[in-house]
Fold this sequence. Notes:
Largest sheet: 7 strands, mixed
Oligomer: single chain
Amino acid sequence: MRGVRWRGAVSQAGRSLAVWAVSTLTMLVLAGILPDFRLQSADGDSATTIAVTAAVGAGVFGLLSALVWPLLVRLLLLVPALVLGLLVFFLNGSLLLIALRLTPSGQTEAAPETAVIVAAVMSAVASATGGALAVRDDDAYRRRLYRLADRRRRGGPPCATTPGTVFLQLDGVGHDVLSAAVDKGLMPTIATWLGRTPGTGPAPAADLPAGPPGTRPTPLPTHRLTPWHTDWSSQTGASQLGILHGSNHDVPAFRWYEKDSREVMVCNRPTSAAELQRRAVERTGDGGLLTLDGASRGNLFGGGADEQALVLSIATRRGRETRSRAGYFAYFSDPANAVRTALSFAAEVIREIAQSTRARLRKERPRVSRGGLYPFVRAFATVVERDVVVAAVMGDLLAGRTAVYADLVAYDEVAHHSGPLGRDTDQVLGRLDRALALIEKAAEHAPRPYRIVVLSDHGQSPGETFRARYGLTLGDLVRAGSGLPVPRRAERTHSGAEARAAVRAALRRPVEERGAQHRPAGPRSEPIVLASGNLGLISFPDVPHRMTKEEIDARHPALLSTLANHPGIGFLLVRSAEHGGVVLAAHGAETPLDRLDDDPGPLAPFGPGAADAVRRTHTFPHTADIMVNSFHDPADGEVLAFEEQIGSHGGLGGAQSRPFLLSPLALSAPADDGETLTGAEHVHRVLRRWLRESDGPQIPLQPAPEERAA
């Protein structure tokens, strides 16, 4: 054993010397290339003295990076993530300037901006050299991984030998989008798991004979692909809350108005996320899917995990914000990570500007604005968030966590502005597949076996925006139908004129024109109109209860007919004093909820399950006075978003309601033959079952109240 340790120490010393030598050479090369970076020595400018100066400078810089860098990053945990990434980039250059001042001569010169470049290149080269040498030495590579694992597990329970489970959520990737990407060869990792040769289409039947000699064999499948159907609210807040906590009751949309508290709830707002998680835990009586030895990474909700990083619902709890940002420390504590991510961030910003410019020059339709800060928002989602979350998951695997749930949001962000299908999203899918491959590789070195489950929370449906097609927003239409002043641009549209004509006919009196004298409305007398993709919510805040159809007609006689008869609207859901709840559509169609099974009426184009989804939402305490779902064309799957998105989700219609579940064959089938996996709460029960099959201790033996009721 002593000999093994001695050989390991010698090997480590050799690698350190090699990294030092490469760093010295890199500094010399950069000094010869960059005009504002000069290596000088007090003994002259001979090649030997300059080389010695470079060696000393590289050595001091390496020591500062190893000793001082982690402390600096830990002190910066409260800095916003994007700022932290950029700040780390420049702090690295400051360390280099300090290192140059500490050389014996002290005469080496470098401009501050040049120091940033030199430090970035040297950090990247040193990290790449050390990693390459460790990988070539299998024993050293294994020891490096185990050291990382020991660091991760420090203070935690001992690692079990039963299989762990990692759940990777590809946000917004629909079942059909994933299948098409696999068939086109964009996602070779998933293709291999499904037993397909990348780019060759669906796998052959299991009983077919092997191909002729010399042909590439079809890999044996290790996973199965299963579609599932979302609730009416097809968005991350509702789906992830149901998946992680077992209940998404009373989450009617991504954003909605609650009359009792007079607040607008938004799923990606920290205070709202924390409140929704509290309600779910209170309703189920269970902490969540990850209650013991679990890790939650990059999610809206924690799932009861002890280890949480980049989780929105804990950001408002005292003492938790630093803990939530600890994932950034784990990643940026290596300056090479900061360099790589910063360069990728810049490349992604340039890529987005080029892609949006190309779409504008080609006059592609549909199209939305992609200027302002959006290129930076996209780069954060597709680069920074991805890199940090993937690194955190790999660390969890090396630490032997029992269950890990992580969300990768890159596709969803890009698809909103570029559309669900096309070159832009194809590139994102390819990079997500490479992230899966990295995680799979890390699992091979984990101290316990792992089962990798990949799933999505919803899909995305294509289509132009409601405003682009009709020239006015849903809010404009509601105001026109209510007899309220509307912007001039909305007045001039055909829809706006029709709405105002309907109001005149209903009220049998002129409607006040824009700019005319009228009594100012009270602070809460006007309707609140909110949008969640192609789902709209209309609430009357001065009425404390959910209004009935009869009450709305008495208050605004033309509003419901204006909305129901608009060609961009598919159907409305309102409460009814006579029927309990009714679905309204064009030409006076009115279908009570209890008759939808026999006569789906306007819900027919939205497919099976739409009636159940609408009936369930009707029971929520905070369902809006008027729920509005946009038009849907079953032929091409298009919907009309009430937000400025050409790839949208949040309501019913098209691919947005059909995400996927990719699970190992070693686990039981997610659903029986002929059974449809419907709703996020159903998915939660499936994941619970799988964790029990792996003998995971984090799921109580007694099912939660929601599960018993099912």
